[in-house]
Design a protein that fits this description.
heterodimer; A: alpha+beta; Serine Threonine Protein Phosphatase 5, Tetratricopeptide repeat; two-stranded antiparallel ribbon; elongated; B: mainly alpha; 2 domains; 6 helices; 67% helix
Chain lengths: 332, 132
């Protein structure tokens, strides 16, 4: 049956639209083919990344073990399962994957959801844990895998995934399956390293969470490293001071808070400085710092007033019991 | 009777927990709080209520984790590793957030592609011959 010219045009238009719609999904891949990112090697494969084949539904613990191993933190999927696997959901949740990495002493940072970011990180030596949906949006099959490199000439990423030690996944396939998790990915780094692709906001967010879960000494290391890149951050300075305090380095904590207080004239820094001074039995200086915190006002005013009360209340106590042991701040 | 006892125990646990947070936070200002203030999401004067909510969302997540088969002591440690923000987020999505874990799908996709190959919709495998 011959198709009318008008209809033919219509079919062409519909076909064209369908093609645009299809290719629209893989825009990143197309762009990568046309203009490969500058300054990156053509091919990267982090072959030293350990491989743990997945058992049952435990791709979460397996992927985490591989990323931690690459960061120099040996961990077995069996132990990690108790930290991140959720039997009732037959899988692992994203928030817990990040917390699990942090608990084991790795700085876990969510990275931007672009194929370039995957390349930047692997080129910098950091394998990337990605959450893929291998199924369909309405019938999801969530799966964690580890991107260990790419090959621009082949147009593919290299992954450790499930039972496969080396999976070659075309750019567009990865992009499609990754898009359904809203391009969720993170790197797990040794605390003396920073991600190659994440900006100040993402990195700071990760550091604050790291401080919460990791041993204080490792948090100190991570904050120091981050402050070399972002020296003007009040949050990072406060984090360094708080971690030093928790690690028991009172003198260094004092220096850090004093510097932050002067650099940013921030009430929170003055307040914490007051606390450290009080613990070092210098109530006069502590009082001065607390008064500055109160004068600056803001949301921390209440806490600063409590600090002042504590200082005033401690003075007679200090006289009667001069060898009072300093109070440790407790994690809640 | 049993219910009353449980309720009383729960109340004691939750209120002492809140009290503990307050004493620990009262004087030193934590980094999380500074970061929040920086993002403009600082808490209002309703600090105590926010802390109460936090304690509840943590208790909530712990109960859900245990219900989903996590060992009680593991669950406690897992909660402790979360930031306040993450604990609250997890409380809201623990039953519906994506849980990565599937492996069967790789086999499934293989079989599906094999089928579509045989039906002639795709041509992925070199050894398949379309029935059409």
């Amino acid at each position: 049956m011959a198709v009318q010219p008008g209809r033919r045009r219509l079919i062409g238009a519909v076909g064209g639209l369908a093609l645009i719609a299809l290719s629209g999904c893989a825009t990143q891949s197309t762009r990568l083919h046309d203009t490969p990112p500058a300054g990156l090697p053509r091919r990267v494969e982090l072959s030293a990344t350990p491989f743990h084949p997945q058992e049952d539904y435990q791709c979460g613990p397996a992927a985490l073990a591989m990323a931690l191993g690459a960061a120099g933190i040996p961990a077995s999927p069996e132990v990690l399962a108790g930290q991140v696997f959720l039997p009732g959901r037959q899988g692992s949740l994203q928030i817990e994957m990040l917390a699990g990495a942090r608990r084991n002493g790795a700085l876990a940072v969510e990275i931007p959801g672009t194929l370039e970011a995957l390349m930047q990180e692997t080129a910098a030596g950091n394998p990337v844990v990605v959450l893929l949906n291998l199924g369909l949006s309405w019938a999801p099959s969530w799966h964690y895998a580890v991107v260990i490199g790419y090959d621009l000439d082949e147009g593919a990423f290299l992954l450790r995934s499930g039972p496969m030690a080396r999976q070659v996944l075309p750019f567009s396939t990865l992009e499609h399956t990754w898009a359904r998790s809203e391009h969720w990915a993170f790197v797990a780094l040794s605390p003396d390293r920073l991600p190659a692709s994440a900006d100040e906001a993402r990195s700071t967010h990760a550091l604050v969470a790291f401080e919460k879960a990791a041993p204080p000494a490792r948090a100190v290391l991570a904050y120091r490293k981050a402050l070399t890149r972002w020296p003007d951050s009040l949050t990072l300075s406060m984090g360094l001071g708080n971690s030093l305090y928790r690690a028991g380095s009172l003198a260094e904590a004092e220096t850090t808070f004093r510097k932050a207080a002067q650099q940013h004239n921030a009430a929170a820094a003055w307040n914490n400085l007051a606390n450290i001074l009080l613990e070092q039995k210098r109530p006069g200086e502590a009082r001065e710092a607390a008064l500055r915190a109160i004068a600056l006002g803001g949301p921390t005013r209440g806490a600063a007033q409590d600090t002042l009360q504590k200082i005033d209340a401690s003075q007679p106590a200090l006289e009667s019991k001069p060898d009072r042991r300093p109070r440790k701040q407790r994690k809640k | 009777m049993r219910l009353k006892q449980t309720l009383a125990a729960l109340l004691i646990v939750s209120t002492t927990h809140v009290g503990f947070i307050q004493t620990a936070q009262a004087t030193m200002i934590g980094t999380e709080e500074v970061a929040r203030a920086h993002q403009g999401t600082s808490r209002s004067a309703d600090d105590a209520r926010a802390q109460l909510n936090e304690a509840f969302s943590r208790a909530d997540v712990q109960a859900r984790l245990e219900a989903l088969g996590v060992d009680a002591s593991d669950a406690r440690e897992r909660i402790a590793a979360l930031t306040d923000e993450d604990a609250a987020r997890l409380a809201g999505q623990i039953d519906k957030a994506p849980a990565g874990g599937i492996i069967e799908v790789i086999l499934f996709v293989f079989l599906l592609l094999l089928l579509t190959d045989i039906l002639g919709f795709t041509k992925v495998f070199p050894f398949t011959r379309s029935i059409r």
